[in-house]
Amino acid sequence: MSSTLTPLWELRAEFAVRLAELYGAEVPAYNTLVDVSREVNEAFIARNGADAERLGSIDRVTAERHGAIRVGSARELAQVGRVFAGFGMHPVGFYDLRDASRSSVPVVSTAFRPIAADELAKNPFRVFTSMLAHDDRRFFDEPTQARLEEFIGSRELFGEELLALADRSAQQGGLEREDADRFLDLATASFELSDEPIDHEWYHHLEAISSVAADIGGVPATHINHLTPRVLDIDDLYKRMTDRGITMIDEIQGPPDWEGPDVLLRQTSFRALDEHRMFRYPDGEVREGTLRVRFGEVEQRGIALTAKGRDLYDQLVAEVDRRRHEEQPDRTRVEVALDVWRESLPSTELELAAQGLCFFTFRRGDGVVPLTETASLRELLEAGVIVAEPIVYEDFLPRSAAGIFQSNLRGEGSRDDEQLGTPYDIDRLSEVIGIRIADPTSLYAEQQQASLDALEAELRMRIRTDNADGTDA
């Protein structure tokens, strides 16, 4: 790569900063969220010292953001994929939110992010991107689908100059500074809230079906729905935000707070705020009204689970639901989950690694290497011959995402479950984007295996994983 090019990671870092400035100007409460997040992280480091950076350096955690946007069609999703490729961001994971919530959330999603470990370390900016399933008859009748397709098909979210610069950036691995500035200007502007009047009747027709559908198919452009900082103690943040008089959603989504290692992802948000927008009425008059679709999300990331670990996690979630429904209806989900976690999930990283429930990278420790040709991962960990470093979960949970969406909706909308839903999976969405969507579990497994291969060469022995990758040894 020419030294005159601004590399992808720098473009990505600048893009994240520009979007944060844009979103902070549009939703001032976001700036409060960022300030409180910084306070929380500083307090956590003061309490925990070096252990505070177990799941990422403080520089990375402080800079880390994930955004969320929504688009209306396959064409728009393919175009946004080209834009993000220009920042070194690739589609990872498939999420179907249509059945992840009791509310009407008619979208399928992926997340665009870096995939190489060194790129994630430089800047891990990720954007959770949802596409409206406007052909799903459970939500949209034929006339509504037809009008959605006409409305969405007539708008242009991403101009040709932006797309051309994105393609060149992806191909070259960066852009000359002048082109880089232009690319950043155009990309940021494409997610700026439009001031064009909204068709009042059409928007509220969609809102009766789904607030999410109205936010995608009832407005002339896309925009940032939330921009999420990362904290090291989300429970502390929830309390601090509440103490400042900011209304939070009812609970923290995802795993409970407990004494063992954090896994996957915990999320919460402040409630969506009324935003003043201009509406055009059937008589042609334009008057001010309010929308409530954007909110301030925050996240705390844990260790990535293997396939075996995810199976266990799903069992734990199902057990929490069962107990709340059948045995403990008066207790909160978080209270029940804490009991279930303590009963069923190992409380140490060593045990999570030895049982193959979480992903780690492994490096040489200070222990004495046994004089054998093969040894188990557990033996080597317990003897200190090797040290496990947790791999941070970089992705998302459909149920948690849907829970955040649901907590911020004005109403649950409507759906007709007598109708057949449109089938979507990772393969179909890959075809829509024109890029193969990566499976996150495979990415983590490759990272773990590379570290094991290097250790085997260094120690000159075979390391028996005994399901440490979540599969048969």
TrEMBL record:
Gene3D superfamilies: Uncharacterised protein PF07063, DUF1338 (3.10.180.80). It is an enzyme of class 1 (oxidoreductase). Its EC number is 1.13.11.93. InterPro entries: HGLS (IPR009770), YdcJ_bac-like (IPR047869). Its cofactor is Fe(2+). Keywords: Dioxygenase, Iron, Oxidoreductase. GO terms for molecular function: dioxygenase activity. It comes from the Bacteria. Belongs to the 2-oxoadipate dioxygenase/decarboxylase family. PANTHER family: 2-OXOADIPATE DIOXYGENASE_DECARBOXYLASE, PTHR39479. This is 2-oxoadipate dioxygenase/decarboxylase.
